[in-house]
Amino acid sequence: MTRLILSTSNIMTGGPSIIRKPGADRSNLELTNSLRSNFLAAQQDYSPPLSATNGSSRDSYDEDQPSHRPQASVWTARDGSDYYIPKIDWAISGLAEEPSQYDITVKLFYLKGADIKDRPQHTKDAVNLVLKELGVPAIDLLIVSFPGMSFDGDCEWEADKKNSAQGNDEEEIESWPVLEELHNNGIVKKLGLAEFGSEKLSRFLARVKVRPQVDQVNVKDCCNVPPPLLKLAKMEQIELLTHNDCTDILPSGTLRELLGQGVRGAGILSETKRGLDGMKGDLTPDWVVKYTAVVRDRGVIENKGYFAAAELKEFESED
Amino acid sequence: MGLLALGTPLDWPEAKQSANQVREWGVKQLLAIWNKAKGKERDALLWGDEIEYLVVNYKKDNENVTLSLRQADILHALAHDEDLCTNGGCVPDLQTVKRNGGPPLPIFHPEFGRFMLEATPGKPWGIGFKDLLDVEPNMKLRRKIAKDHMDAVEYPITLTTYPRLGSPGTFTTPFYPPSGSKLRSQFVPDEIANPHIRFPTLAANIRSRRGRKVQVNVPVFKDENTPWPWKDPTVNYDLHNWPEDDDVRNGASPDNFIHMDAMAFGMGSCCLQITFQAKNITEGRRMYDQLSPLGPILLALTAATPIYKGFLADTDVRWNQISAAVDDRTPEELGETPLKHNRWRIPKSRYAPNSTYISEDNRLRKEYLDPDLIFDPDIKQQLMDGGMDSLLATHFAHLFIRDPIVIFAEDLQELDLTKTDHFENLQSTNWQHIRFKPPPAGNDIGWRVEFRPMEIQVTDFENAAFSVFIVLITRAILSFDLNFYIPIKKTDENMQTSHKRDAVLNDKFYFRKNPFAIRTPRPYSANGGSSGTTTPSISRPPTPTGPVEDEYELMSIDEIMNGSALSSSNDFPGLIPLVESYLDSMNVDVETRCELAAYLDLIRKRANGSLWTAAKWIRDFVANHEDYKKDSVVGEKINHDLIGAVIDIEGKNARKGIENLDKFLGKMAKPCGGAF
């Protein structure tokens, strides 16, 4: 079994992929676009420079010409059973100033196909990758997003009601101790939830030791937060923050397309039966983590990016 | 405009003699600041807004509205209010203002016009999103405190200009006759200006240096019944009180222009200005450059000045009028006569769009710079000898081509290098649309940039919206490393375009097509099995730099603010979507996001035309008034009702029965009013 670790590197200076398009609210385009552009960038950067090739100019390279794609081994890296897409040069990651200058927010998305009992390990893996990427010992706020939750509905009350029956209370509470542990170890200063309506939130608060201090909600019109949720948040001193992410942030079909052989794919996964042109197997996205480092007092976002992890159960070769 | 210490001001011929001394000492003070503060680091983002008010005398049943000249009395009342004093005081020009634990009071300042008042927050704002929510209530508080210290018939209003300033008849209370010795204006009395000696001296010395009165000529709006050619009917060609009365006989008042002749017609305008503290000088220089191309766009978006001296103008904004009102250039400098006594022909007034880029940014191509920039090479050399880099030295050597206008004899005795007065003398009378401000003497304030082009808006909601928008766009610029560079001459052109009637909807502006940073490639090393050379090479050459002309294009304000339509050949993301993307990446609480959404929505709709600018609303108000005869004349009754509507918009029984308010401000039911 191989663990694929996809990364975007810092997307703040990555141009259009991060910019919201009119009408494209609540999409996972930011993640998919920035992964795709980081793959392309790595393919270019890690390929031999012009002077080292005797052939075609790489200036003519563009994403519609998959035949120009360099070998995967050039721009990806294996480390045991981990497979980094693209490879990461840890020496050039990190922040410009010392960690105390930043507010670091991390949001972890547990994905629906992953095994619940792996969540503790997934959580630690995700947080460790972020700490390593940013070169910091701790993060200020860790928000977790459980699958199957939303704030959908034509009216605010209805959305809050519907939310009450979404997700899975038992699984969510079962997942919390690892977060409490990170909090108790000082690695995470504050914990947060995403998309918890008033009823779910009050049930949750009654059963956990370390309480979440943030509930991040996505309401279409942020002026229409359900009043029961507002009331509860005020009473329990939970900060209600807004976000623009979608919960189903990396469906396996999307991941397959990102890594596949198509014109917009990275050419990592095979799409033929024989598996000659890439890896082959069952692909399960496990988690996605988003991190944001904001310079405190200046409101400048210095670094933002994503890691995504997926399991690939490779088929036995038929040959 | 704070008051400098009192002293003996020099009249122009004398001041001229001392100009070089002030410049030399100014350069020395600048170098002292530079050496002290060039390494200043990690200052927080602090920012402040400035709101300027006109004070009017308005009675419901009296057609004659006037400007109140009681600025000094109002400030006195503010400074002697016991409650305000207990809370620390709010008039630093008249009292020592202290912080007494509680939230600091807003601060009130005198302004050039004796009918004006300026108010700023009691302490600078931060970037905490809660601070952004406090801006509008604080603006409302300022308006309320000001009103509470006025007579019952006096009101602070936020119109850029008083529509009938300089019209025949009575437009001030108390009344004073025009044609005084300081301004020598046909239209306004000397008493229109703040009596503090600095202000009349400023006006008089500008006039003396120039050799005639200032000429503020605004094209008149041609309506159905406007006589054409139009001759300003208020100009008196038979006045013989002062030599300057010859100006109009010598063609100062051309056909089809509203003619004005005094500094008060420009410096009596109200603006909305925002100042930011940068983290260090590098960031300050970058902000200065990147905000420059946004100036004309925000000027057109905030257009609010369609009337001068009782006539509808054919322009929508104040900028050129202020520029002309303080233009101290001589005929030689203007290029009207050959250079004999002056050193340069100078293409712009002291009040003008800025002419320099100053950032040490490798994206700044030399093609963007002004090829005709005038600067003093000796001063540039002195600054460079003092350790300043060429780009910044050029900037200051450009500002120092001007003469100091107001010099106090007492200040010429001794050079004090711990002060910045001589430097500020020149710096603060270069009124460019972006100002780069070195740290002041004697405190811990850092390098700052001031954004100056916006027109004041009628309501505090709008003023807060534009203030907050500018703050957010600076954060987006720094976070996304945006690049708005265009040749600076194009910004000059844009600034002129902004003046056109409804430029916000009908005109196009030069703007950079792709604002995004070019990705920095990873360093390539040959361990991936390439040719085996030992030196790792920098992976790729930077993206080729094509012709500068390909980098920008003419765009509508809608496109610049809201992004290119899908059908467009452009792919500009839009300043508002950039700000929204920035907000999406920040932890913003729901209440703040709601407020910010209302602000962004106002600006979005002003840009796409679904809401009107103040200029359009005022024009519409005049056009539909029963007294309007389609002859471009804004008479007393129309003026009265317009001022009445402006007072009502921010008044207690706000917005009842005011025409077209929905088209101007949108449905003002606060979207979050119920929920919070």
TrEMBL record, chain A:
One of its GO terms (cellular component) is glutamate-cysteine ligase complex. Pathway: Sulfur metabolism; glutathione biosynthesis; glutathione from L-cysteine and L-glutamate: step 1/2. Residues 46-73 are annotated as: Disordered. It comes from the Eukaryota. GO terms for molecular function: enzyme regulator activity; glutamate-cysteine ligase catalytic subunit binding; oxidoreductase activity. The keyword Nucleotidyltransferase does not apply. Residues 96-241 form the NADP-dependent oxidoreductase domain. Heterodimer of a catalytic heavy chain and a regulatory light chain. This is GCS light chain.
Automatic annotation (TrEMBL), chain B:
GO terms for biological process: glutathione biosynthetic process. Pathway: Sulfur metabolism; glutathione biosynthesis; glutathione from L-cysteine and L-glutamate: step 1/2. Signal peptide: none annotated. SUPFAM superfamilies: Glutamine synthetase/guanido kinase. It catalyses: L-cysteine + L-glutamate + ATP = gamma-L-glutamyl-L-cysteine + ADP + phosphate + H(+). The keyword Nucleotide-binding applies. Its EC number is 6.3.2.2. InterPro entries: GCS (IPR004308), Gln_synth/guanido_kin_cat_dom (IPR014746). This is Glutamate--cysteine ligase.
